[in-house]
Amino acid sequence: MVFDPDQDPEEKRAVRQNYRSLTKKIEEHQGNPNDFSTEELLSQVQKADRLFDKVKGPQEATLDSHLLLMASNMGAQKARAMKSGSGAFDVDDFVSKLVQYMGGQKSLEDALPDDSDVEDIPDDRSPLDWDRIGRKVMAKSRRVPVMGFMLGPLSIEQKKRAVTKRSKLEKNKEDERRPQELKEEDISRSQNETTKNVAILEAILTGMDTETVNIFKFVINPNDFAQSVENIFYLSFLIRDGKVAFETREGEPLIYCCEQPKDEDYENGLKKRQMVLEFDMATWKVPQHVFARLTR
């Protein structure tokens, strides 16, 4: 096959049409291959062989390979459906013919009278010609049959799937702790503590000599980071209620006590504003005198 990009378009169209026609005929019998005889399948393959002489392009070659694949699959299905004989293999008949071929009696039943026993068989019978059957077998194979091929393996051990049981994690009961259950009195006690600490913080700020104070100087405890965070938390309640004002003057954040606004003030245009204050361990570790200088 030689690739010809300048093949006649009409010839290419005819080749594709013929391939599709052959493929369609096989597809119609693909579900039931018994309705499609072996002669018909062979005829389809022979037509594809003759049609292949006109294939000069990759698309037509793809159609040819697809047709051969379908034909081979159908041939395999028909081969699996074939039966070798209507009955099973007759061992007695085979042994009788084998003995007769080696020069013995036609069958064991013919050698015995009707009223005789096996022990009454005369010993003057001619021996079987094993060399004759041996020469016949050597024409097919010179390999000596071994027990592995005759009887299969002597011992067959069935492989069992090893099932591994996953042991559950044993927990030490002494290390188990029950989560703390919150009750209504616990919540009310927490609210009372928050209210108490907010009042203490307000009293400290009111009793200071200066009118304004730097917010960080007021809330930071240089020896306790957790308490500094709590001070900011409590201070946020005072600013939310309007009891403490927060302003920035010349770059310094200041807080001071103020008169709590009334409802009329909010109606006249006063608005509440919120601010997110970032405070981490690195900020808390800054020395007080350096921090005071940076906030100015």
Automatic annotation (TrEMBL):
It is found in: Nucleus. Pfam families: Nse4-Nse3_bdg (PF15412), Nse4_C (PF08743). Keywords: DNA damage, DNA recombination, DNA repair, Nucleus. GO terms for cellular component: nucleus; Smc5-Smc6 complex. InterPro entries: Nse4/EID (IPR027786), Nse4_C (IPR014854), Nse4_Nse3-bd (IPR029225). Belongs to the NSE4 family. This is Non-structural maintenance of chromosomes element 4. It comes from Galerina marginata (strain CBS 339.88). The lineage of its organism: Eukaryota, Fungi, Dikarya, Basidiomycota, Agaricomycotina.
